[in-house]
C-alpha cells in the first residue's frame, strides 16, 4: 500500500488530522491498534475550547456537537465549601462547549466512513521504519498477514503508550515529567447534573469535580491515592466521598444512581522535545500529557493536529517545508503554556499530603486572591477557555 501520510492512532488527534488532510485532498491512512468499539468505549474528556469547536465545525463534523453540546459561560470553584463563580463570558468574552470526547470521536469516525477514507482497526504489532530516510514505512499484522504502508510522512497520534515516540532513538529526544501521587476516580451516571455549570472543588479530603455529558447524564470525579483500585470503590462509597468534599447545600442536591462507568486515571505532566524526527511528527498525547484538571488534553491534541495539518498541506500542495520545519517549535510554545496552567490548577485544587499545613495555607491564599482579584480571575478564564500564541 502507498499513501502520502500514514497516521498512527485513531483517537481524536489521528481522526481530526485525517479529516483535515482529506478535506485538502491529501491521501492518508489511519492505523489503529484497537477495534472501533474499544476506542468508542473509552470515557475521557468533556470540555471543548472555542478553537476546538471552530475547527470541528470547519471540518464539517460539528452538526451533532452544535445540536447536543452545552455551551457554558462560566464554572464554579469551591474551596472547603466556599464558592466562587468564574464568569468566562464577562471576564474574557469566551465560552466553552461541554461535549464528550467519545462523541467527538464518534462524529469523526462517521465522517470518515461516509467518505470512504481508510482506517485499519485491530492492526497488530505496528512498527515504524526508516523515519530518518526519504522512504519511511509502517508495517503491521492484520488477520495473520503482514501489511506494509509506504508513505512520505508519518503522524504519530498514538497516545502516551504508543509506538511512535518509542521508535525515536533515545539520544534524539528529551522527556520532561512530573508524576503526581494520586489519580482521578471517575463515575458516569444517568442522572441530571448537580448544578448547571461544572464545579471544581478543593477539600482537605481531596479534589472533586462535578461535570456532565448532557442534561440527563453526569460525570463526577474524586481524587484518590495512586495505589487505589476501582474494586475498592462501591457506588455508595463514591457518592459518600463526593458529598463530603462539596459545599453542603450542593451535596444535598446531588442525584445519585448506579454508575454506568467507573475508572481511575493517573495524573502526570509530561512533554517531549522535539516533536519531529525526520519524517515522523508527534502530536497529542504521544507528545505531551497534562493532568486533567484544566480540561486541556483533548484541546491540545486538536490544536497540535491543526498546526500539523496546515503544515502538511503547505508541504504537499505548495511544495514548501516552512510549516513542517516550524511545527515542533510552534507546538512546544503552546504546550508549555498549557502545561503551566494545568499544573497550576492541579496544585491549587488537590491535596498534597507531603506539603503539609504550609502548603494548605498557600492554597487558601491562592483561592482568596482569586476570589478578590478580577485580574486573577481573568487569567484563569483566559487559560481555561483557551490561550494561544497568535502564531500557533
Ligand atoms: P488517544 O486518545 O490516546 O488516542 C491514541 C490512539 O492510538 C488510541 O486509539 C490508541 O488505541 C491508539 N494506539 C496506541 N498505540 C498504538 C499502536 N502501537 N499502534 C496503533 N495505534 C495505537 N483529558 C481531559 O481533558 N479531561 C479528562 O477527563 C481526561 N481523562 C482522561 C482519562 C484517561 C484514562 C486518559 C488516558 C486520558 C484522559 N484525558 C483527559 C486526556 C485526553 O483524553 C487525551 O488528551 C486525548 O485522548 C488525546 O488524544 P490523542 O488522540 O492524542 O490520544
Ligand atoms: C471533565 C474532565 C476534566 O478533566 C475537566 O477538567 C472537566 C470535565 C469531564 O470528563 O467532564
Automatic annotation (TrEMBL):
Its EC number is 1.14.13.2. The keyword Flavoprotein does not apply. It is an enzyme of class 1 (oxidoreductase). GO terms for molecular function: 4-hydroxybenzoate 3-monooxygenase activity; FAD binding. InterPro entries: FAD-bd, FAD/NAD-bd_sf, HB_mOase, PheA/TfdB_FAD_monoxygenase. Residues 2-342 form the FAD-binding domain. One of its GO terms (biological process) is benzoate catabolic process. SUPFAM superfamilies: FAD-linked reductases, C-terminal domain, FAD/NAD(P)-binding domain. It comes from the Bacteria. Keywords: Monooxygenase, NAD, Oxidoreductase. Pfam families: FAD_binding_3. NCBIfam families: pbenz_hydroxyl, PRK08243.1. This is 4-hydroxybenzoate 3-monooxygenase. It comes from Pelagibacterium lacus. The lineage of its organism: Bacteria, Pseudomonadati, Pseudomonadota, Alphaproteobacteria, Hyphomicrobiales. The gene is pobA.
